[in-house]
Amino acid sequence: MEEVVFIFTYRNDVRKILIPYLKKLTPQQWEANTYHNTISWVIEHMAQTEDYWVFQIGLGEESRIIEENQNPLEQYLRIREKTDQVLHSLEAKDLNRLVVVPDFSDGWKPPSEPTMRWLFHHVYSHEVYHAGQIGVIARLNGFDGPLF
Q1: Residue 115's beta-bridge partner residues?
Q2: C-beta of residue 111 within 8 angstroms of C-beta of residue 120
Q3: CA distances from 52 to 25, 59, 128 (A)
Q4: Judging by beta carbons within 10 Å of its beta carbon (0-12, 13-18, 19+), is residue 89 exposed, middle or buried?
Q5: How far is CA 106 from CA 4, 59, 102, 122, in A?
Q6: Residue 45 CB contacts under 8 Å (≥ 6 apart), including other chains
Q7: CB atoms within 10 A of CB 114
Q8: Which residues contact 126 (CB under 8 A, 6 or more apart)?
Q9: Is pLDDT at 55 greater than 80 in this prediction?
Q10: 3-state SS, residue 108
Q11: Residue 57: CB partners within 8 Å, gap ≥ 6?
Q12: What is the pLDDT of residue 1?
């Protein structure tokens, strides 16, 4: 089982920088809205998307994190704990299992065969994209972004 986790060894590196940064933000910085999305919205989106892909698409289960009025940072922390539990439970052969990806209204389709391996890469690359977006949002709002 260790082999599967080894494939994604550096999956949490972005979080090692982003989480301490987020914990230092003021409530005003979380909600600063010069850009069309706030940092709060982006973090909530990242957590909900990971939940959707891993649990609903990958495992065919119900949501694991979404609770009414839960702090977006708590959602973000909680979903990775749950995702890491899944990753630790998988065997190498499980990564080749195909997942059924629904049709999206904008026409988006996976660029590669949608296996569980692809799904995890998709989740982690989505997180990196939005971590960079947080840096842009911060700078547009006049404060420093995370140091990636």
Answers
A1: 98
A2: no
A3: 27, 10, 17
A4: exposed
A5: 32, 24, 12, 17
A6: 37, 130
A7: 18
A8: 46, 49, 50, 53
A9: yes
A10: coil
A11: 99, 100, 101, 102, 119
A12: 47
Cα separation, 86 vs 94, whole angstroms: 11
Which stretch of DSSP H or E encloses residue 41? helix 39-51
pLDDT in tens, 65-97: 666 678 999 999 999 999 999 999 999 999 999
In this structure, what token pair is assigned to residue 129? Answer: 């994209």
Q: What is the pLDDT of residue 64?
A: 72
CA atoms within 13 A on the CB side of 80: 19
Residue 19 and residue 76: Cα distance in Å, rounded?
A: 9
Angstrom distance (rounded) from CA 52 to CA 65 = 10
In the block, which residue shows the tokens 């999305």? Answer: 37
What token pair was written down for 58?
């990958």
Sequence-ordered list of residues with C-beta below 8 angstroms from that of 30, at least 6 positions apart, any chain:
38, 39, 40, 72
Tokens coding 55: 């649990």
pTM above 0.85, yes or no: yes
CA dihedral 53, 62, 17, 13 (to 10 degrees): -60
Please name the residues in contact with 140: beta carbons below 8 A apart, sequence gap of 6 or more. 34, 35
